[in-house]
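Human: Here is a favour to ask of a fellow structure person. Comparing notes only helps if you start from a blank page. I am asking you to supply a protein in sequence and structure-token form. Write it directly below this note and I will take it from there.

Assistant:
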Amino acid sequence: MVKLVTRFPFILWWMMNKYNAIKTEIDGFVFHSRREANRYAELKLLECAGEIKDLELQPVYPCEVNGKLVCKYIADFRYICTKRGNVVVEDAKGVKTPLYRLKNKLVRALFDVVIVEV
């Protein structure tokens, strides 16, 4: 069941997110945008169909350099593709901010993980 988190049937302009994202709840999880919530619903269907397994929400990648924590990258989803057997990390992106681009490069360099942008 999809439910908007706001109490009002309309969104007032001062309540809007910087990028017009609306928090949405599905299965008791609150997602930062409708795009992310819709992708979660799609991935749940794929998991039920056996296409993917071990779906994780909000996996954390601590980016450490020389033993010091620089930042944490929190992806939207991580799962295993059953056909190929590889781990897929996804991020539902509407706007690629400079901070996201930097964290993406850090994760790629430190963990050898390619983030799929949906």
User: Anything to note?
Assistant: Strands lie at 2-4, 24-26, 29-31, 52-57, 60-65, 68-74, 77-81, 87-91, 115-117.
